[in-house]
Fold:
Amino acid sequence: MAMKQKGIKGKAKGMTRREFIKGTATVAAAATVGSLGFPTILGAAAPEILIGHIHPLSGPLAFDGQEMKNAVAWGVKEVNDAGGIKSLGGAKLKLIDADSEGKPEKSISEVERLDRAGVVAITGCYQSAVTIVATQSSEKVGIPFVVGVASANEITARGFKYTFRVQPPSRTFSENALKFLSEIAKSTGVDAKTIAYLHENTQFGTTLADDVEKLMAQYGMKVISRVSYSTKAADYSTEVGKIKAAGADLIFTTGYFGDGVRVVRTLNNLRVKAKAIVGVASGGLSHKKFVAELGDMTESVMDCNYFYNPRSERAKKTLEGFKAAFGGDMSPSMVYGYQPVSVIADAIERAKSTNREAIRKALTEANFANHILPQAPIVFDATGQNKNASAVLMQVANKNIQVVWPTEYAMGKVLFPRKG
Structure:
């Protein structure tokens, strides 16, 4: 079977896979060090399959972007250490970085650059606004794009053929937050019907808050105050003051890491009382660095967000390996930054080809169970959305972040209402 040229380095056009592997196999005596810093002893050389990732590696969200880069890189290393793409003679994945700088328009040129480089698939982009533009560009040139972190409903609602998303959409996060809190209120006998919502003002936060307002009546809840803010602002006293004045049962908040830390600090400084502070897909409230920075202020704070399956041995092995390599924990967002790599690798394996259309078709037929997520197998519906994707509710308890809802994934008991 002939292989396509694009995505495999050093292959002559029209050469068969058998001829190519036979012609390029060499034995090297020296060890080389890859981008992760891990030594690899080279044996028979295998072709490289290029995949790209687009994240905010510089700019205001550089911390988040660098985390995503590490997560994707770990996914690549796991695939390669397991033997690479076996149906293509053990071909290894090679990762190409692309920096959005947090700017949607920058992603257009980055997709074009990755296209010229010959990538067979792309993942990204952490921000919904960037992902919407990047996937549109990817659709135009026909590159499969497997979204890891980006929640806007619009991403998989445009009839695109090449866009697939592993994480839950915005609507799922919003509905899960309402559903979980209503179930917890019922189980504890504590009344919780009113919500004050504080969110960052881009498409990310706005979409989640919009969805909560659309769905709240189904769960007997009502948003009585809604306040937006800029992630670039240094002080949120005015915005938090409005939330305090509302006197709602629950405070919902959506943002990224840095602003999320400032929001919770301000809530504490202004002594805002509520039965629960709940992040809705918030980028910081279930991150260990959040607990490290704010200490006791984080106790009993909740976050309805991504997480690994705490009862999965596969997940434990992955997280332990990542920590040993990078010296830090894989955050919940990083879990979803990591997961698309194995999904892409599985599609290439089943396609037995680096042809982008063949990979796209394989993604439409995915039934990927060897993942680390709290859900059934990853299966994409007709829109490209992982139809089994679901969030979990986490809570800080004694400075540890643990899943508390749904009960089948719970690591500890929920504390509701919160103390203080």
